[in-house]
Amino acid sequence: MMEQVIKIGLLGLGTVGRGVYRILQENQDSIQKRVGVKLEVKKVLVRSLGKDRGINLPEGILTTNLADITQDPEIKIVVEVLGGINPTLDYVLEALNQGKSVVTANKDMIAEHGQRLFAAAQKNNCDLLFEASVAGGIPIIRTLKQSLAGNQIEEVFGIINGTTNYMLTKMTQDGSDFADVLQEAQAKGYAEADPTADVGGYDAARKIAILASIAFNSRVPLNQVYTEGITKITADDIAYAKELGYVIKLLGIAKDRPEGIEVRVHPTFIPQNHPLAAVGDVFNAVFVRGNAVGDTMFYGKGAGELPTASAVVADIMDAARDIIRNVPGIIGCTCFQTKPVLDIGETYSKYYIRLQVADKPGVLASIALVFGNKEVSLKSVIQKEATGKTAEVVLVTHRVLEQNVSDALMDIKQLSSVMEIANVIRVEGEE
């Protein structure tokens, strides 16, 4: 007999947890009609019972005891919105081992421990759903696993960190420096007091590791994602990008090549007419290329209480449908291949290179000679007016091997006429 109510245990009642609870309450009737049964939050795990939660809750719903959720046979779905890995990983494993389907928004846990979690879900015939772990309310994981499942995905790349996108948008619009924009982002609550995860690219690295694993059906370990943040981006780089017809974005990039998977996070010059160039503020966008569907792009809010909660609730509804039909775990881990992850030196890009050099004859020729010797072809050269005894030179290469550029720059550093390699930024999005 079909259950009339499926009961849920909620781990955490922070920003996203409150959003999940609100959506389940406010949209209860339409959710019930879509799923076929009522969904009801029976227990919520919190650290403290006395804290004001800012929402009306039934008496007795809060608990500080995990067993009230994991050991309750009535609770069929556990929703994890605590964040972090310790002790969250243990909590989720306990729920899975008790035969409960799990919905999580935890990118850190999925990126670092996904293999272990999927093994537990498979062993116990449970769902493990994690749409909200990447790009907030944008349904990109479900799209890759289901809607585009008939494709060979060739490439996934995009803006998957709202904080850095906000900062780069402000730097582009206002000509502001990094430090000033970071302070503003922190004041508005877009950046944490310790912004390292965002500005260092680590948040985006976790997300692109998840997306690449799904897109290419092969697990991508987080420690193999080349990661570079936006801390070196200056107002000068922003101005040069505009002059050259580009916009700077922090991108997560993953490509499936015959030799292996290319996966990286770094600041990127993209053409001003590229669809991602127009994605501003805290918005996210993910560009997917499939061999059948061609080019597609998915756009929306990548964080926040309700956008993230929207994705969580959609997963809860999917888990409930699977329970009703007795098919939990029907779409589990899709990493059925084992492909190598390429070193950054094995990748190809165009490059923007900004140098501080001595203002004297022959400098450009000596630099060009080094690049030529390393098989790096130059597309354009800009030399600004000298200030004192130094000049600024900006080079843009043709598409070349990263290792060749790296080797050339090592030699260029040794030239007495080169004062500083001020910045190196990859260029993508051009045919």
Automatic annotation (TrEMBL):
It catalyses: L-homoserine + NADP(+) = L-aspartate 4-semialdehyde + NADPH + H(+). The active site is at 207 (proton donor). Pfam families: ACT (PF01842), Homoserine_dh (PF00742), NAD_binding_3 (PF03447). Keywords: Amino-acid biosynthesis, Metal-binding, Methionine biosynthesis, NAD, NADP, Oxidoreductase, Sodium, Threonine biosynthesis. L-homoserine binds at residue 192. GO terms for molecular function: homoserine dehydrogenase activity; metal ion binding; NADP binding. InterPro entries: ACT-like_dom_sf, ACT_dom, Asp/hSer_DH_NAD-bd, HDH, HDH_cat, HDH_CS, NAD(P)-bd_dom_sf. Residues 352-426 form the ACT domain. Its cofactor is a metal cation. It is an enzyme of class 1 (oxidoreductase). Its EC number is 1.1.1.3. Pathway: Amino-acid biosynthesis; L-threonine biosynthesis; L-threonine from L-aspartate: step 3/5; Amino-acid biosynthesis; L-methionine biosynthesis via de novo pathway; L-homoserine from L-aspartate: step 3/3. One of its GO terms (biological process) is threonine biosynthetic process. Signal peptide: none annotated. NADPH binds at residue 107. SUPFAM superfamilies: ACT-like (SSF55021), Glyceraldehyde-3-phosphate dehydrogenase-like, C-terminal domain (SSF55347), NAD(P)-binding Rossmann-fold domains (SSF51735). Belongs to the homoserine dehydrogenase family. This is Homoserine dehydrogenase.
